[in-house]
Amino acid sequence: MEQSPPNILIVEDDESISEAIAFxxxxxxxxxxxxxxxxxxxxxxxxxxxxAMVLDLMLPNVDGWHIIREVREWAPQVPILVVSARTNEHxxxxxxxxxxxxxxxxxxxxxxxxxxxxxxxxxxxxxxxQGSRAPITEGDLTIDPDRLTVTISxxxxxxxxLEWKLLWxxxxxxxxALTRDVIFRKVWGGERGHGDRSVDVLVRRLRRKIDEIxxxxxxxxxxxxxxxxxxATPRVMPGTRPAPRDAAPTVTALRTPRxxxxxxxxxx
Length: 268
Fold this sequence. Notes:
Elements: E1 7-11, H1 15-27, E2 31-35, H2 38-47, E3 52-55, H3 64-74, E4 80-84, H4 89-98, E5 102-105, H5 110-127, E6 136-138, E7 141-144, E8 149-152, E9 155-156, H6 161-172, E10 178-179, H7 180-187, H8 198-210, E11 217-223, E12 227-234
Parallel strand pairs: 1-2, 1-3, 3-4, 4-5
Antiparallel strand pairs: 6-7, 7-8, 8-9, 10-12, 11-12
Helix pairs in contact: 1-5, 2-3, 4-8, 5-6, 6-8
């Protein structure tokens, strides 16, 4: 049975850009749906969930920031690739923090865009094809690649394909610290640019879901000067301080008071 091509939703109000993207994606063997404003984009996502989205940020009616938030609430598995002229560091970090998988600056190479969409689709396929691997349990967290679930104390955690990929890469490291360059290569593919903060932003997203919740452990640990590692570490409760590892126990000696060396003075 022949597999249907992946369906890519393009949400872009510039007609010349959306037509160019659609042309190159169709040429690469993908099916395409185009929405010319934010509201139409949201309706398209809800009517037929795409395999990936190409999203501009500055859109009529509903902007791209709102679309990312909406889609991440009820479709965390859909890869979102932002294409925008607003790609200063603040905007890039904000888009990634909200849940975008990648940010591409306008003007961009169509060949690069097609390659990045292909990489995003492969990450989704990897997240959906982990059945041959055994589950990983650390502390109260369990990653089940067969069922594609992550649970903490039995409570399910919803992850995007990018967050899943990061968690799996770290978990397979078996408590070994991975550098940001290695993580970027394994999660996004390609080489990390100088000063690129994508890894740190994605780690913060993952920590919000598995570390910054009530529980006995944190899981994504920072290895200063190196990168990050996956290890269940008991959470330090407020008001308590862990004792130093090599601190000697404090012993208080009780002594019987000694009488003074001189006796009571006899009145003359």
